[in-house]
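Lay summary. Proteins are chains of building blocks that fold into shapes, and those shapes determine what they do. In this project we predict the shape from the chain. Here is one chain we studied, written as its sequence of building blocks.
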Amino acid sequence: MLRFEDLMAARILDRQVPDKRLAILGAVGALRASHSPKSLLSSLVEGEVLTMEQARWVHAQVERYKRSRGVAVYSHLLAREGLPAERVRRLVEQAGPEADLNALGDAVVAAGQLPPHREQQLRFQARLAADRDQASQVQAWLAAHPSTTSEEQTQVDMVAPSSLTSLSSVPAEGLSGGGAAAPDPAASGALRLPPDPGASAVLRLGEMAAALAGPVQEEARRIVRGTLSDADDELPGPQFRIPDWIDMSDPRTGKQLAGYRILGRVGAGAMGTVYLVDRQDEPTRPVALKLLPKDADADAKGRFKREILANSFFSHPGVIEILDAGETEQGHPFMAMEFFDGSDLSVVLDAEKRLPARRALHLGRQVLEALGACHAAGVVHRDIKPANILVSRDGEVAKLMDFGIALVRELGEFEGAVFRSMEGGVTGTPEFMSPEQAGGDTLGEASDLYSLGCVLYLMLSGRLPFESESSQGFISCHLLEDPLPLAQAHADTRALPRELLDLVDALLRKAPDERPKGAKAVVEVIDQVLPRLRDKTGRVGLWGMLWGR
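And here is the predicted shape, written in a compact code that computers can read:
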């Protein structure tokens, strides 16, 4: 999956480090052929083409470009609204060189230049225009390069990693100029990188205030003219801030669906698409709306029903709350949920590999509290894994989600009548399922504790308790093999408190009755260990940067 940020990063790298052209092209080709959420920068870091520091520098330049573009569009809309150019320039200067359109919008309201509701509307339009323009640039580039050759997709593996000129030494002006001249990519028949946008003054936020009447305004006018319709001008702005990572370029943005107004896309997958929405009767509350295709199969619809029913049996702050459900007039099953500004734990771990012990236990403790409430209500989750644990942007809050295959004991015979599509097989995720789950036996809360033990093991060591090349291999490991003790999984885990090592090993016992007696018992051990662990000194990785989230 190729994003606008990837194209911008590729252009910057092409200008700054032309000797890495083949590696960059190979990574671009591989990205466009995959559905991975990873970015170009994360791919290049993993391939040892860039260091984390170099990727951080490029990311900062891309974000600087995006901020300046948003500010330019918003400034144009302010001028079109009737604010004098000199006043707009002063507001841009007051907001500062690192400000985004949200900061500028806050300054406009604070200065009393526009009524809040009108400013919210203009801010919404500016963000909509900027996101649509970015999406159109990606589509234009993909249309101009309809396919990638297998040679291009493997070029990243043909270039041996070597030291780069330190990108941290390149001046900020490198975004719009400077650096070594790159050879013509057309000469080699390779993928052409996006054109150098340095000619556009929109790129240089520091020059914005002095150039609003010139090229910046003309570029912003072009973006607005090419992206916003008369209908968009009538859309009221939401009464909350839309996170930067939400994709507002989605064609459904601004449209009404089941009483909700779509503000942008949160994500999409095999089980449907999730949108950020608001509604007229609760305008200050952001909501996530999950939409299934009309032709979704019986299994997908069964998971949908099961999740709604499971959540109706209990409520807990550590579980994503379901607010509403039904079917749209067009026949799409939908589910309205609490919106959570974060990403799932699998994304965090992909970027950071392993977490500091204190942070891992802090997140794990919150999931255990949620599991305690879940189990007390007679619900067994059956699919505890990193992808079903959401983590807030600051890394401090965890929430459990996706009860699509949960076992709800109170349903009794109704369980089989409603969910026949799930009968006759093992359900769950092989890497994290308990031995009794892998064997198709009756499950209790001890099964969820085993799965959480696998998650804790992964967070603390950076690897799973078992290694296999196939789903069936993982199932066999859970049934027949003893896991590698946590103390031996990583050099750093040897220094963990003995109580913590014993806890994780106990969670991974084969026999359910040999595991800790309930989530509360696990929390009690964690509470004894946490005060003895040092506070984290900083984030290990840049998952928000590398995944664009």
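What the prediction tells us: The chain has a mean pLDDT of 82.
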